[in-house]
Amino acid sequence: MSLVIPPLASAARRLRAAAASAPFAGATAAALAGLLCLSAPSHAAPVHVTVTVENLAPANGIAFAPLHFGFNSGVFDAFNVGAAATEPIISVAEGGSGSAWQPAFAAADPTATRGTVGGLLLAGATATLKLVVDPLLNPFFTFASMVVPSNDFFIGNDSPTRYRVFDAAGNLAIGAIDQLASDIWDAGSEAFDPDAAAFTGNNGLRTPQNGVVSFNFSELEGFNGRSTGAGYVFTSGLQADTAIYRISFEASAVPEPGSASLVLASLLGLGWVARRRKASAA
C-alpha cells in the first residue's frame, strides 16, 4: 500500500484538462497547474497509524501491562541479551510503568513518536491507539511490556532496528509483530518469588537478583495455582511455540485541508472565468 499522498498532483492534472477545454482560461489553468506541481510533495507524507495489541495467551494465563512503544530512527537500545538490565527496561519489567523507559527513549531519539497502549491486557483482550507518524523519519518500531504475573519478565525487541515497519519509500512494510512464549525475556534484576510478584503478591517486596537479561518463559509455571489480581487462578499453559501477543499496524493518509482548500478555490476561479467568457460571447 502506498503512503505517498498525491492530492496536489491530482489537482494539477485536473487543471491541465480544464486548460485544454477552455482556451480563454487556459493561461490561468496552466499557471495554477504549474504552481500545484511545484507544491506537490515529493516525499512520503506523515500518515495515521493505528496500533492494535492483542493478548493471544491461553485463558487464565499470562496478562500484559501497558505496551510502551515508539516509532523511531533505530537508535534507542533499551537492553541487550547477556548484559545486566539498566533502569529503563527495569522500569518496564518490574512494575510495568515504564517511568524510566519513556524518558530514556525521548533523550536518545527526540524526534521519535512514542506512546502507550492498553491497560492490564488479559487473555483475549485487545487495545488500540491511533497516532500520526512520519514514516521516513521514524521507520522502526521499538516496544516493551511487562508479563504478569512475574517478578521481572517482559516482551520487547533487543535490537533497535529489529522491526522496520516502513520501507525506504514510506510504505507499510509489515502488518504485524507476533510474539511467542519463547520470546519472553527475564530481566535478571529481581529474584523469582511469587509472594513478591506483580499480580500474585506484593510487588513492593523485591530481592535483587543481579543477573543478566535472558530468555525465560518456563519459570512462569511456578505461578500455577496462584490467585491473581484479576480473580482467576493462574495456569501457565505455555510451550515455546505458544502465541502470546500480537501488535498490528494499519496506515492511512493524513488529510491535507490546506491543499484541498487551494484546489477548491482554483476550480471555483476557473468556473467564474468560464461564466464570464460565456456572458461576453452572448
Structure, explained:
With 282 residues, the chain is α+β, with helices and mostly antiparallel strands. It has two domains: 7-44 and 256-281, no CATH class; 47-253, F-spondin domain (Immunoglobulin-like, Sandwich). The protein has helices spanning 7-21, 26-39, 87-93, 101-108, 257-281, and strands at residues 47-55, 63-64, 67-72, 113-117, 126-133, 140-148, 153-156, 176-180, 185-186, 214-215, 243-253. The strands form two sheets. Strands 2, 3, 4, 6, 7, 9 and 10 form a seven-stranded antiparallel beta sheet that branches. A four-stranded antiparallel beta sheet has the order 5-1-11-8, with no helix packed on it. α3 (87-93) packs antiparallel against α4 (101-108). Residues 1-13 and 18-42 have low confidence and may be disordered.
